[in-house]
Amino acid sequence: MIVPMYKYAFLVYHSAYKDFLKEIRKIGVVHISIKNNEPTPEMQELFRHLNEVDKAAKKLDMLEPEKSETKPAFKTGEEVFNRLKAMEKEMEHNHHQVLQLEKEKKQLVPWGNFDWKQVQNLEGQGVHIRFMSCPVRKYNPEWEEKFYLHVIGDQDGYRYFVKIEKTENGIPENGFDEISGADELILPNRSLSQVKEEIEKREGDAGTLTHELHQIAFYCKPLLKSYHDEIQQQLAEQNALLQTTEEVEGKVKMLEGWVPETKKAELDNYLEENRILHTTDKAEEEDKVPILLKNNRFAKLYEVIGELYELPNHKELDLVPFFAPFYMMFFGFSLGDAGYGLIIIAAAQFMKKKMPNLKSVMSLAQWLGLATVIFGVLTGTFFGIDLINSDIPWLESVKTYMISTDKLFNLAIIFGVIQIIFGMVLKVINITRVRGFLYSLSTIGWLVLMVGFGSVYGLQTKEIISPQVAGIAQIAVFAVAGVLILLINHPKRNIFMNFGAGLWDVYSMATSLLGDILSYIRLFALGVSSAILGLVFNSMALSMKPDIPVLGPLVMIIILVVGHGITIFMSALGAFVHPIRLTFVEFYKNAGFTGGGRPYKPFAEPASKNE
Fold first, then answer.
1. 369: closest CA among 575, 579, 538?
2. Overall domain count for the chain
3. What confidence tier does 576 reach under pLDDT thresholds 50, 70, 90?
């Protein structure tokens, strides 16, 4: 159900305006109307900063919290954020330094751990050493007869050697002789041991920073969350000021907003007590009204699925309570294994304790698991075991109530027809609410055609009515439906315009309805594929286990656990996605869903403070 909204306009003297904003923020029920969509530079900076804090919080969530004897000495969330930013820069710098050091280490490894001071001493005594390399296959032993060379060693297909030259005042006696095919190397001016020591130091620093990060993840998440809320609050205050207009040469401030019918009492009391001038009006058809949903405990769980598509606008029905039972049923139909349903229920119960913030999602998973158990019992499937064809004596009396594969196909089509007809009934209600009953006559005509023709066909098949009576009834159904669809489908057009539009409507509906109904066959396909996958892994486990007393059962258990784990994941994913497709495409379309609603977001203090 969509909670009715009231449009408020507040007129406040400029000197009392800041106090007024503080009070309505405490009350926390006013959704401020957006008149100016262009944020101020201050708001843009806050948005950027909020995004950075949000990223920092998400990175902390990915870390394993680590408790320590000494708690980090942070007093505010801003301090935590600034430290995280500084640590990020340190770690990034450290990482680049290690990469550079590893590169230097790779250059020095072929030469071993020599002392650069000795090389420099030799330079001072007129001996110049050049570090050179070439591919092993290109190394010419004759070079050793022509130059003073000393081979250091071979590595990765290259030969490393030094060329020794006599110099006077830093200049070789015969000039710098080059060796064709060899390259001179410029080595780092420190030893291999020094580089390794520096790498160890850098890695130690990285370990210390990582340790500190894990400590922050354990102790400081609430501080960071509080800082995140503070920034959001600043943004909300800036937005309230942005949406405020000035009247009477700036002496009066005016603010407009929306308040749910169920939450307006406290605000009205405050406004009356403080004698604040205001107006209250109901929503008009052209207004952009924020949407607040209010459903029972069962339907409320499915709001998260409805939000994946779009919120309804304030003029139409909230379809969540109407698709919720169907979605639950379709999920169970698609997964259709009682064993898998029990695992989903148990896993969701475990996750409720581990992640209390996801309690509503886990409750939804348990309802879907319950539907899976019910359909698994109806189809006789338990962890891939076909109970209908199994030789279990105590199940014989129950097998008569189980559904075979042929009946499962028909059931999927029946469910589709029922949901489509139900959607069209809701469409009639929606059109009546928004435009008036006369505009829904065409949809009523299609309902008369589908329900009437189906009823006549069913009665004739069961021989409740004779073929002659059935023929007369069919003509009557076609006549009534034809008049509604072709002649009076729009109250403000003439009969000829209606007839042309009706013919196009007949073409569109005839083609789309058939496709919509056939789409529900996917429920049957998913249910059968899930059962087949489970059966395949059961057969693999039995056929692949070795005939060894201990190893055989162990191998079988591993295959069953892995195989059914894969099946549950893949089948549950399909069972989640495809009913969503049936809901948002087939059901929403036939229910005449328009959407476009914006969520209700009141100007309020952070939830943590309200609690």
1. 575
2. 4
3. very high
